[in-house]
Write a structure and sequence with these properties.
Length: 478
């Protein structure tokens, strides 16, 4: 039988505040010695009282607005009770009944289809400590405990692992545009739990929900959901039935394993946090936050398509990162709009390749927009050939030097003198008699080969158009 997959995602994003959610300890603990960014509040000691971080509330409202949520006038914090070594107080301060945002949505483009994914709620809580498991013990680092953690809960509107991945990519892009989170999954600042069930098409009856944890990349989320969907379908077809449980993804083995039966909301014994007052969210404040929101990825993508005639594919890639989109638009301030495709090609091609190879964001690149446009101008006026421009670009990327400096130092100026090119062509023809014979017999691909050999012989500096013209002349004008 054919089954339908039903997926909902719970995303936890650490917020980029300077201090923790309920105390003044620094959130900048990366690389710090364990248990040094701590105080009696985040250590869970009795007596000290928590104080709400206003910036964390603001960031959560920003996110809820960007996700088209309704913002209530009243919200409060609750105690979520459970016992685990990473929970210092024996409970977590979270939001259960009155989240900051409800009933929102975002759109994704998955396999060419526009899908609207519902957002159940956006709420705020505190992160837990980090456990380091050893063979004979577990160590605990409290530096992370108390960091503001925003949870975004989707509706179960996704029907495939690919849609789930596309949703996460779009959501992370929005958070980065807002500047509220780094969104780095590998660092744990953007974490995802996936809930998955299956059902027969047309049926409202779902199998018990399975929650999957321990996924630290978009690829892992997709693979884990694909595996879990197959596992549940195989179980049903063998006469069994999935149970409501939490399973962990073991990436090295490509499978999920049972961790524990799934808790229900009642198991956490939620009740209002007695040490924190309810919050009344002023409407004027909310509207000021709304007015300060940046242009978000989908709106920016559509504008770039309309303004510069870019394809949906190119515009989507350019706007996936706010840094990349800003760089593109800063370049376009320096050139004619007709050059948009050329600029896009450089950014999405060689520039992105080198950024990925060096693992840096475009904001940290040594090449500024003015320098990239300078290189394009040298290529346009024939000073450098296409292959030579790529060589110069790599030098610019590594050093931050201007394009004309790289051309002069490496002597990569384009050769346009007919006598010099003709000499190179004759040298290549002399040692490639087979290609000459193939061309004479009508094999046009032989011409492409000979052009490539001439370009290699001239270090990519020869004018390609003149190379082709002279080769044809030398071979009899065919």
């Amino acid at each position: 039988m054919t089954y339908q997959t039903v997926i909902g995602l719970e995303v936890h994003a650490q917020l980029l505040t300077r201090s923790k959610m309920f105390c003044s300890c620094s959130t900048d603990y990366a690389g710090a010695h364990p248990n040094t960014h701590v105080c009696p509040i985040c250590l869970g000691m009795p007596g000290p009282l928590p104080v709400i971080n206003e910036k964390a509330i603001e960031y959560t409202i920003m996110t809820a607005l960007a996700l088209n949520c309704n913002i209530p006038e009243y919200t409060e914090f609750d105690r979520k009770n459970y016992f685990y070594p990473d929970l210092m107080k024996g409970y977590q301060i979270s939001q259960h009944g009155t989240p900051i945002g409800r009933n929102g949505w975002l759109t994704i483009n998955s396999n060419g289809e526009i899908r609207k994914i519902g957002i159940a709620d956006v709420h705020l809580e505190e992160d837990v400590a980090k456990l380091w498991h050893r063979k004979d013990c577990s160590l605990i680092d409290v530096n992370r405990s108390g960091v503001p953690l925003m949870e975004i809960v989707s509706e179960p509107d996704m029907e495939s692992a690919v849609e789930a991945r596309d949703y996460l990519v779009q959501l992370r892009s929005i958070l980065r545009y807002l500047g509220v989170s780094t969104g780095n999954m590998e660092e744990g600042s953007f974490r995802c739990d996936a809930n998955i069930s299956v059902r027969l098409p047309g049926s409202k009856e779902l199998t018990p929900k399975t929650e999957i944890k321990n996924m630290n990349s978009f690829k892992a989320v997709q693979q884990a959901l694909e595996y879990e969907s197959r596992r549940q379908v195989d179980l049903l077809e063998q006469g069994g039935s999935p149970i409501q449980e939490t399973r962990g993804w073991i990436e090295q083995e490509g499978r999920t394993v049972s961790q524990r039966t799934k808790e229900l909301a009642g198991d956490y014994r939620y009740f209002p946090e007695p040490d924190l007052p309810p919050l009344v969210l002023n409407r004027d404040w909310i509207e000021r936050i709304r007015a300060g929101l940046p242009e978000l990825p989908v709106a920016r993508r559509d504008r770039l398509m309309a303004q510069y005639g870019l394809s949906l594919y190119d515009a989507s890639l350019l706007t996936a990162s706010r840094g990349m989109a800003d760089y593109f638009e800063n370049c376009m301030k320096l050139v004619d709009p007709a050059k948009a495709k050329a600029v896009s090609n450089w950014l999405l091609g060689d520039f992105s390749r080198l950024l990925n190879a060096t693992n840096i964001e475009i904001e940290r690149a040594k090449i500024v927009p003015r320098q990239l446009i300078g290189l394009l101008a040298l290529a346009d006026d024939g000073t450098v050939s296409g292959p030579a421009a790529k060589i110069v670009f790599e030098e610019m990327f590594a050093t931050g030097r201007a394009a004309d400096e790289g051309v002069a130092e490496k002597k990569l100026g384009q050769i346009s003198g007919k006598d010099e090119i003709r000499e190179a062509v004759r040298g290549v023809l002399a040692v490639n008699s087979d290609a000459v014979a193939d061309y004479a017999s009508g094999k046009q691909q032989a011409l492409t080969f000979i052009i490539g050999q001439v370009m290699r012989a001239t270090g990519g500096r020869a004018n390609p158009g003149m190379v082709r013209e002279i080769i044809v002349q030398e071979l009899g004008g065919k």
